[in-house]
Design goal:
Number of strands: 12
Shape: flat
Strand content: 25-35%
CATH topology of the largest domain: Gyrase A, domain 2
CATH superfamily of the largest domain: RNA polymerase, RBP11-like subunit
């Protein structure tokens, strides 16, 4: 696999990945979406809520707030020594206490006071609730590491997509300068130069083939490479996009190592089970004797015999 960075900003990353099969790049994409851990608010304790919103709505809004993640200080709660109870190693706390003045107030993520200055909301302008005069909200919240497979609030990316690298060619000998390909292409792949269509941004092509269909002289050819891709990662702000890519590869490597141990000829590591204490045999209960059935009553037989004689007559 060959990786070349094409564009990189604080929250976006575009790479050229070569010599890889589609199934592998799709597996990495799914791992980044669903199995790369990030921080998100998991537990909300609402001490006072005088806003027009229900407690569940406020808790849901707080859970969807993207938080900056620090892998150096926190671990997944299932791997923590507290066994998921909650401690300073697996969770970060927040508090919020606001009261609206006379002209009203909008509580935002900027009103959340974090216990850890490194785990904070990505933006302090996300609205939580609108308060009227005198209304108050007092909240305690706790964030933990999780994965998007359990809930979407733990997804570190808003966009993770890939496409096969396109190849667009224009035969200048056939091109008649009609400009139709330039007008129909919404990704600005073509440009007119000296009355001829020229490819100026090949990687922006989406392989829709609109330019091929509109060209009457068949001067445009579009193809793609099945083993080379352009990967685009857009982060929610919880992690830098390059860190998301690296963590996704780490998770993929662990899955690969576990699969290798399960192949024939390799003995997987199995943790020995603790012996269970044998249960004491309980004393057997004595069987109850079956009581004999009572004989049928004579009155029933008599009535039955009378009815038979009447039918014979």
């Amino acid at each position: 696999m060959k990786v070349t960075v094409l564009e990189q900003t604080d929250n976006t990353l575009q790479m050229r990945v070569e010599e890889v099969r589609p199934g592998l790049i799709n597996a990495i994409r799914r791992i980044m979406l669903a199995e790369t851990p990030t921080m998100a608010i998991e537990e909300v304790v609402i001490l006072e809520n005088q806003s027009p919103l229900f407690d569940e709505i406020i808790a849901h809004r707080l859970g969807l707030v993207p938080l900056k993640t620090n892998y150096d200080q926190y671990v997944v709660s299932s791997d923590c020594t507290c066994e998921g109870v909650g401690c300073h190693l697996c969770q970060a706390g927040f508090t919020m206490e606001v009261e609206a003045p006379e002209d009203g107030f909008i509580a935002t993520t900027g009103d959340l006071k974090p216990q850890d200055p490194e785990v904070v909301p990505v933006s302090d302008k996300i609205p939580i609730a609108k308060l009227a005069k005198g209304q108050r909200i007092v909240i305690e919240a706790y964030a933990r590491l999780g994965i998007g497979q359990d809930h979407a609030k733990w997804q570190p990316v808003s966009t993770m997509a890939y496409k096969m690298i396109p190849h667009v060619k224009v035969d200048t000998n056939k091109c008649d300068g009609c400009k139709e390909c330039v007008e129909v292409c919404f990704r600005q792949v073509f440009e007119m130069q000296k009355d001829k269509a020229v490819v100026v941004d090949e990687k922006n092509c989406t392989l829709c083939n609109l330019c091929v269909e509109t060209c009457d002289v068949q001067a445009i050819a579009v193809s793609h490479d099945e083993n080379n891709f352009i990967v685009t990662i857009e982060s929610t702000g919880a992690l830098p996009p390059m860190t998301i890519f690296e963590k996704g590869l780490d998770v993929f490597r662990k899955k690969y190592e576990e699969l290798i141990t399960l192949l024939p000829g390799r003995v997987p590591k199995v943790t020995p089970k603790k012996p269970r204490a044998k249960k004491k045999a309980l004393p057997k209960k004595p069987k109850k004797k079956k009581e004999p059935k009572a004989p049928a009553s004579k009155t029933k037989t008599k009535t039955a015999s009378k009815s038979k004689t009447k039918k014979k007559k």
